[in-house]
Amino acid sequence: MESIVDSFTDLDTSQKVLYVVGGIVASTVSVVGLRKLCFKQKAKEYPRDTVILHQIGRGPYAPSMTPFAVKLETYLRMARIPYQNVHGLKMSSKGKVPWIEYNGKAVADSTLCIDFLNEKLEVDLHQHLSPRDKGAAMAMQVMTEEHLYWFLAVFRYQYDNDKTFIKQTLKIGWFVVRIAKYMVAKSTWYQGLGRHTEEEVTQMFKKELQALSDFMGERKFLMGDEPCESDCAVFGQLSQLYWHFLGTGHENLIRDKYPNLAAYCNRMKETFWPDWDQCITHGGTKEATK
Predict the structure, then answer these.
(1) Residue 102, strand partner residues
(2) Is 100 left (phi over 0), alpha (psi -120 to 50) or beta?
(3) Is 108 helix (H, G, I), strand (E, B) or coil?
(4) To which H or E segment does residue 87 belong?
(5) Are the C-beta atoms of 53 and 85 separated by less than 8 Å?
(6) CA quadruple 192, 196, 198, 203: dihedral positive or negative?
(7) Of 80, 92, 112, nearest to 272 (Cα)?
(8) How far apart are CA 266 and CA 62, in angstroms?
(9) Maximal C-alpha separation, the chain
(10) By CB distance 3.0 to 4.6 Å, which of 123, 180, 184, 227 could disulfide with 231?
């Protein structure tokens, strides 16, 4: 029987090259496969009936630098749902953060996370509201999340000329800063806000804050003496404007011009975040779980 060596010798140069390259590729694939088989990491196992909240790291003056993480964690506290934080940059299937896992089920987007938990755990933080008040609360939530949020974005990444916020909080490289600035500029252009001048945007921003302040009046929470689900979203957005509005020239705007909103922020903090100082990086720990 002809040996493998004799067969290889009879091949022409091009065939030999293909033979060798093919062998290398096959060997590489085999090694990679064996490594995956032998060293495959087990999926992280989390406790049952506990919400696993995936979010970025803690913020320096508020528990997060994203309003949607503050919203979602405040909701979990308000609803008294057991949860565990997992801090990191792992994104959801939709490329967003925060997101949750519950008994192996992954859910993306803060609003959809809340809807999922409401249905799964039979939670209704709006149950004390009339249909009219529930509609008003939802309107305020949409205004803050779908419009006020974009004011935060342009002030934070477009108008912060000395990059105070980025330097003191994000601590990221200039290349990443430029990418973030470009993405915000592009998003706000299509959204519409980026087509206006800074003066026009500032005027619109203050008008919207005034509307929220007028609506809330002297009430303890958004709709009265008892907090509701929409308070989580409104507080999430205001937490950034009250504690993380660095480098914008309007750091004390809420405190000076809208004292009822400032009182509301502190009231939400005292009610649902007794461990606030342990949940921030300035004066507290970088990790907090419940």
Answers:
(1) 51, 105
(2) beta
(3) strand
(4) strand 83-87
(5) yes
(6) negative
(7) 80
(8) 11
(9) 97
(10) 227
